[in-house]
Design goal:
The complex is a heterodimer of chains A (524) and B (528).
Chain A lengths: L15 E4 L3 H12 L4 E4 L12 E4 L2 E3 L11 H6 L16 E3 L7 E3 L3 H9 L3 H25 L11 H15 L3 H10 L4 H8 L3 H12 L11 H11 L8 H14 L3 E3 L4 E7 L2 E7 L4 E3 L2 E4 L3 H8 L7 H9 L6 E8 L15 E4 L3 H12 L8 E5 L14 E8 L11 H16 L5 H4 E7 L1 H8 L13 H5 L16 E3 L13 H12 L2
Parallel strand pairs in A: 1-2, 1-11, 2-7, 11-17
Antiparallel strand pairs in A: 3-4, 5-6, 8-9, 9-10, 12-15, 12-16, 13-14, 14-15
Helix pairs in contact in A: 1-10, 1-18, 3-4, 4-9, 7-8, 8-9
Chain B lengths: L3 E7 L3 H12 L4 E4 L11 E5 L2 E4 L10 H6 L9 E3 L2 E5 L5 E5 L2 H9 L3 H25 L11 H16 L1 H13 L2 H6 L5 H8 L19 H6 L1 E2 L2 E2 L3 E3 L3 H14 L3 E3 L6 E5 L2 E6 L5 E9 L3 H9 L6 H9 L6 E8 L17 E4 L3 H12 L8 E5 L1 H4 L9 E8 L12 H17 L5 H4 E7 L1 H8 L35 E3 L13 H12 L4
Parallel strand pairs in B: 1-2, 1-14, 2-11, 6-16, 14-20
Antiparallel strand pairs in B: 3-4, 5-10, 6-7, 8-9, 12-13, 13-14, 15-18, 15-19, 16-17, 17-18
The chains are: A alpha/beta (524), B alpha/beta (528).
Chain lengths: 524, 528
């Protein structure tokens, strides 16, 4: 990470400028550099990594990033960028997740149904059998979803034969599942996650545990239609997990970028993307330093790009209108705890847990969601918990731990605004809720950090504090974020999107970044 | 030897009657068996109080297909539609919004709340009408099957795709938004005033167990623009003499074509031999034979009661059992001794259409939230009409009928659905109390009150779980998946047993399309 090389225009000429050094920005930069392009990454913060950056939140205690699910990163990106040579190590499958209970033994769910069997049987023998079938079904339909999620989306509206062919070929992957599974995929996609999981399982604890990721950072509850599509999306993306956690992914990406000769500038806030005659010229930073390149790939959220970084007169009116209406209401509060001892749950005090989700019934989850409709915080939030210091002890001092909590739901546009009081009282609520399941939690807390959607917006520059850059609603997924920019390119020549606001959406996947890079390479 | 009919139709609802009429018109011998003493199913009109003729369940006609009116000569048989003239929204603060069939007048009303929305409204209506015209083809023909490899199916799909592409990118995208967004999110794209958005968004939730913020509710907004009377788009209407008169007109048409119709003739079950339907068995054990049996009942009732689990394979049975009905609405019908007077607007001109009690989005969401956790809404969404203003024949002079569609009233209340009778009057009170906030003298004017909970809709009208559409109109139960994937073409796994009710494509509402399409499919596919 070299400091900016002064205001020498010769030095500031690049083939590609990437805005934002999150996992997607770094992926795009590395891939383009690998294809022989001269690339610079401009990051407004002092560190790289975005939502997957290791950050000290209390002396000696580090977060593993805001998004702690490290099981989503695309294998192909790992291979293509040789990330395993840059320090990235992967487990074989997603780690088991624990669902604690107030009364009852809780449920430690392994991804592998054979390992999960005995645990599920404590609740229902039938569910243990059905979990085998559930996993088998997901494996059977995987080829279609892999195609859908891991390739550049076909242009539904374009009439060219190439697009038609791409569309037909996606259709064919669906057909190849066989009539029965194909019908099933078409049926279950638009369903609500509660209905579909209720068809499978009688143990709500199990269903809620599985449903959690479908609602992460969303404005939907388990009874909202189309949430099942988000469950399927998560199941299809989830795979081997980075042992060092989310930050180990961005660490490896950074090393890869550096070795490929990418210039990484931190503390470089883009003020304006310069455009002349509908064509990209470069960008100007807040400190008025400028960079020139015929191509700009923006991994910031699309609303920030189009509503703050580009002069409105360069944007077609329809696109501007769509961007204004893009739903980017954040609903997630992030809580980090520094603990003096490991987190243990009362229902299973002997169990060492890396991941847990707290929500015992769909009604409880739905009620948590209801509150956001009236711009209130949930009184019993859904907690998605990771203890990254178990697999990565460098995040905390010896025998100490870090707990990372994504708490839902707390709206960005809170009634009465997010002041200190609102932040801390929601922080208390989250801690108390966790404490009601944990052993002596309050005594173990050394420090805590609470980030409201407003804090997330301010710190990470995400409109509305939305961790997925834009709501994962079906309409915003099919042509993500809006039809004019659904395939990484935009109406402005040379301007590309490469962040979570693009297909296939949020999470530490590296997919929008790599697919955008492919698009740029294809375009020559 | 007793007569063997070409078709026996179970249920004399409007779809059963339409189906009967088409089959009879094609020269088939048809027998309709209706368990009630009146024809029409949920589209009936009854004199519940002396001189007051209530359209007990269905109270407006919107989507009834105009070509059915022509082909069955329903006008000749006494069908007459009176268009709704306006849509009125009273507000608790003493203000109100009335949308008239005259668009200039409407614009002036909307402009009081938002000048921008008044400008946008015509543009919105135009876009929606274009979309509705595209969708019309889908409701006027059997659902295309994207999973079929049959060349004619593929050709049809390609044709449809071509027409779809013909809409151009903007409308194609609009269509995609309609299929995926919530009614509210969709309206947010166009309008800013909640006073306008609230009453518009409710057409997305009528009869479903969803809220205006639930994804997938936007497309139902189109129904509002699909309503056709005599070929004119965007019109909803009353059936003169009550909705039952429409049913009687269809029945008269069917009879004129030679169909035989029996009321008070319940069917006990479908007679099945070697996997084929060969007739029906009556409760007294009598058998009536036929070449085909057509069920106008909902899929749950058809298969689990009329056919029986033992005659179905496991896979199909699973599909039928998970078919979602979950009724969410009730009806309250009132006979009143005077015209209801809204405190927020004098006169009666604005009462000649429908009246919506939905003063805001949060109001609607709170109503939904109560239902989600197993209770009826204390302050429900009410769609109310006073048909006696435009059709004085339904009430004695000077007196009126108030017919209220009420949502949410979930079938599955937390006490258990069978406890609805104990909650019935409390539910009725909630509705009357809500209305009385807008119509101060209402309570004193009530001569008679009928409260229909979802439980009553099930017990009295045979609608399983009180679902007025014979099944939730959610994407996984629509088009080629209605009622279940693989069986969306009116056929069933039992040979010679067909479906013709709202549980088949294109679904519920008084439109007659399932009955018509079932009959036409049977006739063209050699099923009869």
């Amino acid at each position: 990470m070299t400091p900016a090389p002064g205001n020498n225009p010769e030095n500031n000429k690049y083939d590609v400028i990437v805005i934002g050094a999150g996992h997607n920005g770094l992926t795009t930069a590395a891939m383009l550099a690998k294809s022989g392009r001269k690339v610079v990454v401009l990051e407004r913060r002092l560190i790289v990594g975005g939502l997957a950056a290791r950050e000290e939140f209390h002396p000696g205690f580090y977060t593993d990033g805001i998004l702690h699910d490290a099981s989503l990163f695309d294998e192909k990106v790992i291979r293509e960028l040789g990330l395993s040579y840059h320090g990235l190590t992967m487990t074989d499958c997603p780690p088991p997740i624990f669902a604690p209970q107030r009364e009852g033994p809780g449920l430690l769910l392994h991804h592998d149904p054979v390992l999960a069997k005995s645990e599920i049987e404590k609740h229902s023998a039938g569910d243990a059998t059905r979990y085998v079938e559930y996993r088998a079904f997901l494996d059977r339909v995987r080829p279609f979803f892999n195609r859908l999620l891991r390739s550049i989306p076909p242009d539904v509206a374009a009439g060219g034969w190439r697009d038609q062919l791409a569309l037909a070929s996606t259709g064919l992957t669906l057909r190849r599942l066989g009539r029965k599974d194909m019908m099933e995929v078409l049926r279950i996609g638009p369903m609500c996650v509660a209905d579909w999981l209720n068809e499978w399982f009688e143990t709500q604890l199990l269903s809620c545990l599985l449903a959690g990721p479908a609602l992460t950072c969303s404005s939907t509850g388990p009874w909202s239609p189309a949430t099942n599509a988000m469950l399927l999306r998560h199941e299809m993306l989830s795979g081997r997990t980075a042992t060092g956690g989310s930050s180990s992914i961005t660490d490896a990406l950074r090393v890869s970028c550096e070795q490929l000769g990418v210039d990484l500038h931190t503390n470089a806030t883009v003020k304006e993307v310069r455009i002349t005659g509908g064509v990209i010229e470069g960008v100007t930073l807040q400190d008025s330093e400028s960079f020139d390149a015929p191509i700009v790939a923006a991994s910031c959220d699309p609303k920030t790009l189009f509503c703050s970084l580009i002069d409105g007169r360069h944007i077609p009116a329809r696109l501007e209108d769509r961007m204004t209406h893009l739903r980017t209401l954040g609903t997630t509060v992030k809580v980090h705890l520094a603990l003096g001892k490991p987190l243990r749950f009362a229902c299973r005090p002997d169990l060492e847990i890396q991941h847990a989700r707290i929500a015992e019934s769909f009604d409880e989850m739905e009620r948590a969601f209801d509150s956001t409709k009236y711009r209130h915080c949930a009184t019993s939030p859904i907690l998605d918990i990771a203890i990254p210091s178990i697999s990565n002890p460098t995040l905390a001092p010896k025998d100490h731990h870090v707990v990372s909590i994504l708490a839902h739901f707390a709206p960005y546009d809170l009634d009465g605004s997010w002041g200190n009081d609102a932040r801390e009282s929601f922080g208390d609520l989250v801690v108390n809720r966790l404490a009601s399941y944990a052993v002596d939690l309050n005594d173990a807390i050394i420090a805590r950090e609470v980030l409201t959607p407003l804090d997330i917006e301010t710190r990470y520059g995400l409109t509305g504090g939305h961790l997925h850059h834009a709501e994962h609603g079906l309409d915003q997924m099919i042509t993500r974020p809006v039809p004019e920019c659904a395939r990484y390119g935009t109406p402005i020549r040379g301007l590309y999107l490469c962040g979570s606001g693009s297909h296939p959406g949020g999470g530490i996947t590296g997919l929008p970044g790599s697919l955008a890079a492919k698009t740029i390479i294809k375009a020559g | 030897m007793a007569k063997t009919y070409d078709a026996i139709i179970i249920g004399g609802g409007h779809n059963g009657l339409v189906c009967a009429a088409y089959l009879a018109k094609a020269g088939k011998s048809v027998l309709v068996l209706e368990r009630s003493h009146v024809l029409g199913g949920a589209a009936v009109t009854e004199e519940l109080h002396p001189g007051f003729h209530f359209s007990v369940c269905s109270y407006v006609v919107s989507l009834f297909r105009p070509h059915i009116i022509r082909e069955l000569e329903l006008a000749k048989h006494g069908m007459e539609l009176i268009p709704l003239e306006c849509s009125f929204l009273p507000l608790p603060d003493g203000d109100s919004l009335c949308r008239w069939s005259d668009s200039h007048r409407t614009r002036r009303e909307i402009a009081r709340f938002s000048a921008k929305d008044a400008e946008t409204a015509p543009e919105f209506a135009l876009a929606m009408t274009k979309m509705a015209q595209f969708f019309k083809q889908i409701i006027d023909s059997p659902a295309p099957d994207p999973t079929s490899l049959n060349p004619s199916e593929i050709m049809r799909l390609l044709r449809l795709t071509k027409q779809f592409r013909g809409l151009g990118p903007d409308l194609m995208y609009l269509n995609m938004q309609l299929m995926t967004m919530s009614a509210l999110d969709f309206l947010d794209l166009w309008f800013e005033s909640e006073v306008l958005k609230a009453p518009m968004s409710v057409s997305g939730i009528i009869g479903t167990f969803l809220g205006v913020r639930s994804p997938g509710t936007a497309y139902v907004l189109l129904h509002h623009y699909m309503g056709e009377i005599d070929g004119a788009f965007r019109s909803w209407g009353f059936s003169k003499g009550g909705t039952g008169r429409l049913s009687l007109a269809i029945a008269a048409s069917a009879q004129a074509f030679g169909a035989e119709i029996r009321t008070e003739s319940p069917v006990d079950h479908v007679m099945i031999q070697n996997g084929r339907a060969v007739g029906v068995v009556l409760p007294n054990g009598d058998e009536i034979r036929s070449k085909t049996v057509v069920s106008g009942l909902d899929p749950n009732r058809t298969f689990l009661k009329m056919v029986g689990e033992k005659n179905l394979d496991d896979e199909f049975l699973t599909k039928i059992k998970r078919y979602k009905l979950r009724g969410s609405s009730g009806k309250v019908n009132l006979a009143v001794d005077r015209l209801p007077e809204f405190s927020c607007r004098a006169g009666s001109e604005h009462l000649r259409g429908d009246i919506a009690i939905c003063p805001g989005i949060d109001y609607l969401e709170r109503a939904y939230d109560e239902a989600k956790y197993g209770d009826f809404s204390r302050r429900p969404y009410i769609n109310m009409v006073v048909p006696s203003i435009v059709d004085p024949s339904v009430a004695p002079p000077g007196k009126h009928i108030i017919s209220c569609f009420v949502q949410y009233a979930p079938y599955h209340i937390k006490e258990g659905a069978e406890h609805w009778p104990e909650r019935r009057e409390a539910f009725g009170d909630a509705v009357v109390d809500t209305l009385a906030e807008y119509v101060p003298g209402l309570k004193e004017s009530i001569l008679y009150r009928q409260v229909l909970t979802p439980w009553d809709l099930e017990q009295e009208f045979g609608l399983t779980e009180g679902n007025i559409f014979h099944g939730e109109l959610s994407p996984e139960q629509l088009l080629f998946q209605r009622p279940t994937s693989g069986w969306a073409r009116y056929r069933t796994p039992i040979r010679d047993l067909w479906l013709c009710g709202s549980g088949a494509h294109p679904g519920g509402g008084v439109m007659g399309a399932p009955g018509e399409l079932a009959a036409k499919t049977m006739l063209t596919s050699g099923g009869i």
